[in-house]
Amino acid sequence: MSQRTNPGPNPAELFSDEDVYEAMKKIPGYLDISAGDFKELYLLAYQHAETRLYNSVRVSEIMTREVVTVLPATPLAEAAARMAKHHITGLPVVREDGTVAGVLSEQDFFRNMGDGSQISCMALIADSLASGGCPALCMRGTTAGEIMTTPVITVLENTLLHEAGKLMREKGINRVPVTDNSNRLLGILTRSDLMHAFPDRGIL
After folding, report:
1. Residue 133 CB: number of other CB atoms within 10 A?
2. pLDDT in tens, 34-82
3. Rounded distance, CA 120 to CA 126, Å?
4. Who's near 24: CB < 8 A, 6+ residues apart?
5. Cβ-Cβ contacts under 8 Å for 131 (sequence gap 6 or more)
6. What are the backbone angles phi and psi of residue 64, rounded to the nearest 5°?
7. In whole angstroms, what separates CA 142 from the centre of its chain?
8. Where are the beta strands (DSSP E) in the chain?
9. Who contacts 57 (Cβ-Cβ below 8 Å, separation ≥6)?
10. Regions of the chain short of the pLDDT cut 70
11. Are 98 and 124 a contacting pair, CB within 8 Å?
């Protein structure tokens, strides 16, 4: 897991007027500023710093480097078990040379179960209960490469974070593989990475 850049929680919620007064007492000389003005100034400075960081941080600084992957030939049963084990809803599908072939997500499974109308876990459960069967049985013997989403949207490691966040928002995706110029996988950027790095921005 990569180290994340996190400016921290909203400072206005962390300290009281008494905290400000005590801090001001420790500064030599005379300060012609009220506690309220000081807190407002501090908050504005914090917000400015957070915006500056968000607009200057590169994807490589917060991406997850230890990525769970599968090969195109990986059986879906194995891919699903791997996703369940690591509590993730999607992962990159990589070739033997480490290049990205596609992305396998929960939605890819749903689209290929039964008649393809299942779009959520509850829809799948409802269909199973109504039919008395298992919609996933039709995928037995299928591989990750057969149902993965491709071509895949990727970003380079030096992509600015706000550009990657905008791309994910516009495409409606929860994760994006991070690659080098030869399309070799270097890491993955997820909604969780963005929210952990900048929890106050409402990025996605």
Report:
1. 12
2. 777 777 767 766 676 767 776 778 999 899 999 999 999 999 999 999 9
3. 10
4. 31, 33, 35, 38
5. 114
6. -85, 125
7. 27
8. 90-94, 100-105, 155-156, 175-179, 185-190
9. 5, 160, 161, 197
10. 1-25, 31, 41, 44-46, 48, 50, 54, 114-120, 124-125, 127, 129, 131-138, 199-204
11. no
* DSSP secondary structure letter of residue 172: T
* Residue written as token pair 């030939």: 73
Q: Which residue has the tokens 């007064």?
A: 21
3-state secondary structure of 75: strand
**HSE-up of 175 (CA within 13 Å, CB side)?**
23
Q: Which residues pair with 70 in a beta bridge?
A: 93
Report the alpha-carbon distance of residue 83 to residue 153 in Å, rounded: 20
State the pTM of this model.
Answer: 0.69
Q: 69, 89, 57, 66: which is closest to 187 by C-alpha?
A: 66
Q: Give the Cα separation of 98 and 179 in Å (integer).
A: 10
Distance from chain centroid for Cα 107: 16
